Amino acid sequence: MTGLELLTVDEMRRADEAAVAAGTVGLTLMENAGRAAADRAAQIAPTGGRILVLCGPGNNGGDGFVAARHLQARRYEVEVVLLGALDALTGDAAIMAGRWKGAVAAPQPASVAGRDLIIDALFGAGLSRGIEGPAKAVIEAANSSATPILAVDVPSGLDGTSGEVRGNVAIRAARTVTFFRRKIGHVLLPGRILCGEVSVADIGIPAAVLEHIKPRTFANAPPLWRPLFPFPRTDAHKYDRGHAVVVSGGPDATGAARLGARGALRIGAGLVTVASPREAVSINAAHLTAIMVRSFDAAADLAALLADRRLNAVLIGPGAGTGARTVGLVETVLASGASAILDADALTAFAGNPQSLFDAIRADPARPVVMTPHEGEFRRLFGEIAGSKLARAREAATKSGATLLLKGPDTVIAAPDGRAAINENAPPWLATAGSGDVLAGFIAGLLAQHMPAFEAACAAAWVHGACATLFGPGLIAEDLPELVPHVLAELRACSDGHPPPH
After folding, report:
1. Domain end call among 164, 187, 215
2. Distance between CA atoms of 34 and 171, rounded to whole angstroms?
3. Are residues 143 and 236 in the same domain?
4. Are 266 and 294 in contact (CB under 8 A)?
5. Number of neighbouring beta carbons within 10 Å of residue 287
6. Interhelix angle 435-448/255-266, nearest 10 degrees
């Protein structure tokens, strides 16, 4: 998984310290970081162009001074602006400022005018408070200009751990160059938007330091879960590939279940059954061919169906309704021993008594359970949890005992054991009615094939995004399952270390 680790600001600090303890000089790390920023700047600015470097009072500013020196040596017209006094700089930043032989100006909004590139080296990832005063004025002027901005490490004003803006202003970068590994704030929104295109530079920190840091957050990509993806064996038959059940709503709410069922079938479940209320059987049957339909009237009927242990994964929630009947059906599913995917109404139905759901999940710790709320459903079930999206998903997974997939353009998948992944391949046109039902079906299909819950949720989210990207604008939910064969073919063909292009 090398390269997929996403670090907190504290974990990055520990990585720096571990590299220095292992013999890498801190000045060398800063020199390498500044040179990497200069290399990236040279790819953006025209040859000999005018570049403004905004330097702050800490090590991020030291990186800026190094970048300015290298760019000046390449005959760019470079001006450095420093927030604070030169003689107030300390440590490596003071040494690097001393190696810069050009002028140093005070920050003024007018400084940004007439530049080909602005380099933001004001604060970096370690900012602990909102930005005010001259720094705020310069950032606002830079953002208002038409000049591209290259952020060094993290756009100033952005929290590198949460992806949130500290205070009310942050740099809006066209590109960001960071070091060793990306930070969580590069991937969570709004950080991902503020960072622009992010590149990672090797500045001499050995990958071995990760063995001591032990990061628990990853970018969601095939190397994270591909070794566990259930590609069919040559000698497999359909019963080896599991039997997923999708519980349908009533006659006026059957489409969501069929979307989930087709998703489960396309992603590889050997058999899929729609468990349908008796009054909706004819509607479901008229629309389904390879997917079977079984009728039930009450929770006892569903329990009898699930007594057959070959039916090993159940998706419930899409179109189910939010009343007491759904509560009883969810409890029946959880009591069956089958893997459970709880979506939509299956979550909202417990808004008045969430602990009863959590207790039912924890009653059988060996049974995989995945919950797939969007933000509204999450708040209804878990209330207001403080912190970033990642922190909230982690806390909810710990509290509930289920793997939690918190949907959105920066979907977070969190396991009860603390592992988490952030998905970043979802295009905006994936925000369409029914797409979440297909995603839940993907998870059901993978759980039916005995993929572990965390990896199944990660894989499903990534395949979901890859299908949408492959289709392009104009996507509707029905299109997603039909693109799974193309995405899986590429996934199977790729090597573990090189994810396919979508």
Report:
1. 215
2. 19
3. no
4. no
5. 14
6. 40
Predicted TM-score (pTM) of the model is 0.95
Is 186 in the same domain as 232? no
Residues 234, 122 share a domain: no
Cα-only R_g, the chain: 26
DSSP strands (E only) in 56-94:
77-82
**pLDDT digit string (tens) for the chain, length 502 residues:** 679 999 999 999 999 999 999 999 999 999 999 999 999 999 999 999 999 999 999 999 999 999 999 999 999 999 999 999 999 999 999 999 999 999 999 999 999 999 999 999 999 887 878 899 999 999 999 999 999 999 999 999 999 999 999 989 999 999 999 999 999 999 999 999 999 999 999 999 999 999 999 999 999 999 999 999 999 988 888 989 999 999 999 999 999 999 999 999 999 999 999 999 999 999 999 999 999 999 999 999 999 999 999 999 999 999 999 999 999 999 999 999 999 999 999 999 999 999 999 999 999 999 999 999 999 999 999 999 999 999 999 999 999 999 999 999 999 999 999 999 999 999 999 999 999 999 999 999 999 999 999 999 999 999 999 999 999 999 999 999 999 999 999 999 985 444 554 4
Residue 3 lies in a domain: no
**CATH at 473:** 3.40.1190.20
Domain limits for position 421: 222-493
Interatomic CA distance for residues 412 and 262, integer angstroms: 24
Distance of CA 88 to the CA centre of its chain: 39
Residues 17, 51: one domain?
yes
Same domain for 475 and 342: yes
Beta strand 271-277 with 243-247 is parallel
Domain shared by 183 and 236, yes or no: no
Residue 1 lies in a domain: no
- Contact partners, residue 189, CB within 8 Å, separation at least 6: 163, 389, 408, 409, 410
Residue 2 falls within a domain, yes or no?
A: no
Q: Which residue has the tokens 């040494």?
A: 95
* Dihedral pair phi/psi, residue 410, rounded to 5°: -120, 55
Q: Say what the alpha-carbon torsion angle 446, 449, 451, 456 is, to the nearest 10 degrees.
A: 0
Secondary structure class of 30 (helix, strand, coil): helix
Q: Which residues of 152-178 are buried (b: 16+ CB within 10 A; e: fewer)?
A: bbbbbbbbbbbbbbbeebbbbbebbbb
Q: In what order do the strands lie in the sheet with 339-343?
A: 217-219, 420-422, 412-414, 403-406, 369-372, 339-343, 311-316, 243-247, 271-277, 292-296
Residue with tokens 């094939």: 449
Asked whether residue 375 is domain-assigned, the answer is: yes
Find out whether 382 and 404 touch, Cβ atoms under 8 Å. Answer: no
> Which of 181, 215, 249 is the last residue before a domain boundary?
215
User: Is 371 found in the same domain as 316?
Assistant: yes
Instruction: Mark whether 355 and 488 lie in a shared domain.
Output: yes
Domain count, the chain: 2
